[in-house]
Amino acid sequence: MFPPELSSLYPLAVGEKLLLHSVQLDWFGGKYLDSWPSNSRSWNDWVDRVEKAKGEVWKSADIYDAIQLSKNDISMDKNLLYAALCYWSISTNSFHFRFGMMGPTVLDIVALTGLRPHGEEVSAILGMAGSTCHFPKYGTIYDNSLRYSKYLDVSKSETAVTKEEHLSFLFTWLSKHLFCDSSVNMIKQCTKLAFALAAGRKLALAPFLLSNLYHGCTEIIMSKFL
Predict the structure, then answer these.
(1) pTM of the prediction?
(2) Domain ranges (residues) in the chain
């Protein structure tokens, strides 16, 4: 792919081969990203409903633009995705193209989503004691392993937006629309993030989202995301 004399400029882990040099002819056959987010009218309506009551909190936490972005339906170009990942190195978290190495950065995440590049460290939030999100009406959602569609149904109400509904909304948005995960079930670590964001705390979500993107690319390469 690139001249041998430049190999030292393209570091790879010992034994690592780019997917380009190891892919089998049927590697892509029958594979699909089940967790790729799909848009729906019900989700857009829920965004609009909660925004009227909590929009200022979202702006304070610098997540307003990213939440609005979730209302757009972004179709997955499977061929483009797999073609790009043929050049992805899991040891450097970058693409190894003939003209050089290239990869997404924190600034790219900020430009695309509007998330904060600095602020409270997400790892500190996740490391806090306590992990169960208990809403009297819905039970202990942390332990229920509810699917997105079911969770969306039970989280909306016809009354004023409550603290519990706002937490439910943020939990769904983080799990389904923001982070890459191989499961269609809720990401349990998002419970603590939902509580922090509902309080308007300024979290450094851009670096955390970038690391999650790296992890997602690695999972696809290792065929655990399919």
Answers:
(1) 0.78
(2) 33-221
